[in-house]
TrEMBL record, chain A:
UniProt keyword list: ATP-binding, Lyase, Nucleotide-binding, Transport
Transport is among the record's keywords: yes
Domain ABC transporter: 8-253
Gene3D superfamilies, per database record: P-loop containing nucleotide triphosphate hydrolases
GO biological process, one term: peptide transport
Membrane association type: Peripheral membrane protein
The protein's name: Phosphonate C-P lyase system protein PhnK
Length: 259, 309
């Protein structure tokens, strides 16, 4: 095992919903600091794949292995649930499309950021508070709103808060499900800028699921294109977007509306 | 099918007591139900703070009036027991009077107002001021047994959180208090950690009473009838109130003393005595207050009296 080994290894992952197939035989490696984009149309199995690899839903077949900080590479679904949940709230982060899924709406922004710290045993209010202030600054939020409820924030701010809440334990791997959809373009642009900056400076590996090719162009190093539950094309982002080989990818790239 | 073995308590009770009414089994519940509840209690004592599900029965009073506490009391009471029932610390409130009368009628047991004379004390909202002993059992009536309920509505999820000791959200609620008000404002049902493991709701007792639960010599049993849960704190078990290092747990204090008995160390109720907003403070524990007055302690008598009454 070395620092060059993949952080996440996915092998032959298949998930079925009864007779319906969510995703079929997907395999990939993710290295530390790498950003992998997954694109495809609605119903192509992107979110199913993300749920399976991020420990939220056990796949019907296949393996997800993660290289931990302390005990080497482990099977995500082979470990105890206690350990998996611990992993998910310390070494991983999950940013949801809908901020309401990822935030505690009934407690303040500061408590949202501090929750992970309290979950791993931080019991000093002053420390938690300072850490929350620090992270709200890093995601460019107004410190004066630290005690406001997330429900009073705009969509873009809720996404920023979600990011701060996830990054507070310094995770090595973050999953993002459509992090910018539903936001208007100028807010999108600033959020993407922020994510790119944070991911770059902290060396976080990312899996970003989106239907927006602009997002992957900006964020991801590598790209997987999905259709009907299968990966139809994968490669370096620029390569796939500028020289698409598969007919579906060609269709996808040519469907971008010119401004 | 197995034959039902008559429970010794039932037969001796019938002989020992004449006063109780006909047509009911000893202490109202049938023996099979009592056995089921006792099994739940044994499990609860074995795993301090863990909420044991039990088949709560329909009782002859509405949910929220102490159905859980009554079932626990009925399962542990014997003909030689002396029962005390308090509600908000007082023996003479509707709830307390009726539950006491209920057991006097259905079990024919002796009842008392005096904490020291009681072998079983059923309570709602308070722990008696007089320290309890190893020979006593304290039975709490619990409305919401799940301390995480306000933060996590899913029962499946709260069970998982207990199983995996994921108690971070409990501190999130305390954090919210400090962020909003500068201190922890939760003043009753203040969450505790039992024996370093389970986080437990101490039922709506004031946080003033939380320190009394810690290493208490008496057995503490908690019954929630509507929610169908029993949990327990065995004698001499550590019960620690949750807090932050820089915002430690504190109990309420009063500037006044009890107007009747002058006590400065008991939980005081504020009583409005006229329509001008004049008020006096008296002990919420009526037995403690009476004992002190009988021993010669006198308060300042409150604003209107001009002397003790």
């Amino acid at each position: 095992m070395s620092a060059r080994d993949p952080l996440l290894q996915v092998r032959g992952l298949t998930h079925r919903y009864g007779r319906q197939v969510g995703c079929r035989d997907v395999s990939f490696d993710l290295h530390p600091g790498e950003v992998l984009g997954i694109v495809g149309e609605s119903g192509s199995g992107k979110t199913t794949l993300l749920k399976c690899v991020s420990g939220q839903m056990q796949p019907s077949e296949g393996e997800v292995a993660y290289r931990t900080r302390d005990i080497g590479t482990v099977d995500v679904y082979g470990m105890t649930e206690a350990r998996r949940r611990m992993l998910m709230r310390t070494d991983w982060g999950i940013v949801y499309q809908n901020a309401r899924d990822g935030l505690r709406m009934k407690v303040s922004a500061g408590a949202n950021v501090g929750e992970r710290l309290m979950a791993i045993g931080e019991r000093n209010y002053g420390h938690i508070r300072n850490e929350a202030v620090d992270w709200l600054e890093r995601v460019e939020m107004d410190i004066g709103r630290i005690d406001d409820l997330p429900g009073t924030f705009s969509g873009g701010m809720q996404q920023r808060l979600q990011i701060a809440r996830n990054l507070v334990t310094k995770p090595r791997l973050v999953f993002m499900d459509e992090p910018t959809s539903g936001l208007d373009v100028s807010v999108q642009a600033r959020l993407l800028d922020l994510i790119r900056g944070l991911v770059g400076s902290l060396g976080i590996a990312c899996v970003v699921v989106t239907h927006d090719l602009g997002v992957v162009r900006l964020l991801s190093h590598r790209l997987m294109v999905m259709k009907g539950g299968r990966v139809v094309e994968q490669g370096l982002t620029d390569q796939v977007l500028d020289d698409p080989q598969h007919p579906y990818t060609q269709l996808l790239v040519s469907s971008i509306l010119p401004v | 099918m197995s034959t039902v073995i008559p429970h010794p308590t039932a037969s001796t009770a019938t002989e020992a007591t004449q006063a109780r009414i006909e047509g009911y089994n000893f202490a109202y519940l049938d023996e099979q139900t009592k056995r089921m509840i006792r099994r739940a209690i044994l499990k609860a004592v074995a795993v301090p703070g863990y909420q044991v599900p039990f088949g709560s029965r329909e009782m002859p009073l509405p949910y929220g009036w102490g159905t859980g506490g009554i079932q626990v009391t009925a399962a542990v009471i014997g003909p030689d027991d002396t029962l005390k029932v308090i509600d908000q610390g007082a023996d003479d409130t509707t709830n307390a009077v009726n539950i006491r009368r209920f057991f006097a009628k259905t079990a024919g047991v002796a009842t008392t107002d005096r904490t020291v004379d009681a072998s079983i004390i059923q309570t709602r909202h308070r722990i008696p001021e007089t320290p309890l002993t190893e020979d006593q059992i304290l039975v709490y009536q619990v409305p919401i047994p799940e301390p995480l309920r306000q933060l996590e509505p899913r029962e499946s999820e709260t069970r998982k959180m207990h199983a995996l000791e994921e108690y971070g959200v409990m501190h999130v609620s305390l954090y919210e208090d400090i962020a909003k008000f500068g201190r922890i404002t939760r003043s009753y049902n203040y969450p505790v950690r039992v024996n370093g493991r389970y986080v437990m709701a101490p039922s709506p007792i004031p946080k003033f009473d939380n320190p009394k639960m810690d290493r208490m010599p008496a057995l503490q049993l908690f019954g929630a009838g509507r929610e169908k849960r029993i949990y327990a704190v065995p004698p001499y078990t550590e019960v620690k109130s949750l807090d932050f290092e820089d915002h430690p747990f504190e109990v309420e204090t009063w500037e006044e003393n009890c107007a009747l008995c002058g006590a400065g160390d008991s939980y005081l109720d504020e009583v409005i005595v006229d329509d001008q907003g004049t008020k006096m403070y008296v002990c919420s524990d009526s037995d403690y207050c009476r004992e002190r007055r009988e021993a010669g302690h006198v308060g300042d008598g409150g604003p209107n009296s001009g002397g003790p009454q």
